[in-house]
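Typical record is below.
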Amino acid sequence: MSGEFSSADAKKLVSLARKSIEYYSAAGRFLSEPCEEKKFLEKRGVFVTLHTFPERELRGCIGFPYPVKPLWSAVIEAAAEAGFHDPRFEQVKASEMEKILVEISILTLPEKANAGDLPGKIEIGKNGLIVKRKYRSGLLLPQVAAEEGWDAETFLEHCCIKAGIPTNSWKLKGTDTFKFQAQVFSEKAPKGIVEEA
């Protein structure tokens, strides 16, 4: 889905995410930042991912898989949540922000992928996955499989692990799998140039 948002859009959103984290660190509440640009006021699924610099180790990742909030508001909330409420990590300290990369993934609407030859319907680096079974669900962004060097079946298995269900659950009746795409923008250095991944 590349091309929907421009590099100028990306710079604004990444800057907003960084500002949101810094504000939440100081004030303990979400940033209130007005926006009048129509494309940012449309509801979109979005994730904000934080990496350490230069190691590029995951430092937080939270978002909204479905378009439940305007993109602008969703970035503000997801950024703060990634920095302070990802249960896998300690809260980000204000001093850390000089060594953190901010990445934003703007999602398409997830579409159900029927079983059968499911791995054959997944394009590594292009499709992200959501696996749902009963009350559990797991989501992995498209860039994860490419970064890890996984094939489609391994990607499905890791999405099951993320959901806290057995790795073969994607093959079972009663499990729903959805795929989506994302336009991904990331800082190359903290507060530096923002590029599309």
User: Anything to note?
Assistant: The radius of gyration is 17 Å. The chain is about 30% helix and 25% strand. Helices lie at 7-27, 38-41, 71-84, 142-148, 152-163.
